[in-house]
Design goal:
The protein is an alpha/beta fold. The chain contains 10 helices and 8 strands. 2'-O-acetyl adenosine-5-diphosphoribose binds next to loops.
Length: about 260
């Protein structure tokens, strides 16, 4: 069995620690938009400087808040796909097959919390979450307005901070901002300690997140990509499996159980 799926199956069966590194393509089959490489992707339609930067926020917080609220509404109406569920079941499937304790850690660039909704725990969020708003002024956690967010509104006044009265901003990392350091360090440690890494649905163009699979490769780990299109990171992959997250991952789970 020297197919991509076979190579990944064999590598996982020999692993005790696995890191899953996911990007927007992970959630594409849940109906959540990706950022690049598609005509309807976010950064083909919108300017990230306007919607994903501190300057864009200062220029028009109502527009930025409305856009993230429409994305939150999209996610609330969506469901995790078979790929998310397969990842959440990976450790127990490997334990059942090999009799060994296997640790699977999910490190994601996604802000949609769909891994958690599928049952993964301890997910490391490199780019924040749509569900963790905070004050732009004092950084304390904030709250959403009551009710279902409006999918269609183009300008919405952000809620005010209960502590300082500042505007509440989305809890995601913007261009020009540092990634949360504790999360990134934890992700680096997980990569150091892993035997295998699955890189799923990311174009691999946003750094420093994309350093993680590159580091894994340089550390001699087994690194495989699940992506219908080879990403920017393909040269660091032992295996490029040209399949989608919601097709390939359930297939992998079945192969691991066989
Ligand atoms: P991108 O939109 O850049 O890339 C999505 C990747 O998913 C592409 O390589 C697609 O080929 C692949 N893909 C599409 N459909 C897929 C499917 N069904 N299964 C598997 N793969 C599929 O998304 P990211 O790499 O996540 O940052 O983007 C990185 C960061 O750029 C995001 O976290 C976001 C954005 O600006 C912040 O919000 C800070």
């Amino acid at each position: 069995m020297n197919t991509a799926s076979g190579q990944v199956t064999r590598a996982l069966l020999q692993s005790r620690r696995i890191v899953v590194f996911s990007g927007a393509g992970m959630s594409a089959e849940s109906g959540i938009g990706t950022f690049r490489n598609a005509p309807d992707s976010h950064w083909s339609r919108f300017d990230p400087r306007e919607l994903a930067s501190p300057d864009g926020w200062r220029a028009n917080p109502q527009r930025v808040w409305a856009w993230y609220e429409s994305r939150r509404a999209e996610v609330l109406a969506a469901q995790p796909n078979g790929g998310h569920f397969a990842i959440a079941q990976l450790a127990s499937a490997l334990h059942a097959r090999t009799g060994r304790e296997v640790q699977v850690d999910v490190v994601t660039q996604n802000v949609d919390n769909l891994h958690e909704r599928a049952g993964s725990t301890g997910v490391v969020h490199l780019h924040g979450s749509l569900f963790a708003p905070r004050c732009f002024a004092c950084a304390r956690p904030g709250a959403f307005a009551d009710g279902v967010p409006d999918r269609k509104a183009t300008e919405v006044e952000p809620p005010s901070c209960g502590h300082c009265g500042g505007r509440i901003r989305p809890g995601v990392v913007w261009f020009g901002e540092a990634m949360p350091q504790a999360e990134f360090r934890l992700a680096e440690d997980l990569v150091d300690a892993c035997d295998a890494m699955l890189v799923i649905g990311t174009s691999g163009v946003v750094f420093p997140a994309a350093e993680l699979p590159i580091n894994a490769h340089h550390l001699g780990k087994f690194v495989a990509e699940i992506n219908p299109t080879p990403s920017n990171l393909v040269q660091y992959m032992r295996v490029q499996w040209p399949t989608s997250a919601a097709q390939g991952l359930p297939e992998l789970l079945q192969l691991l159980k066989a």
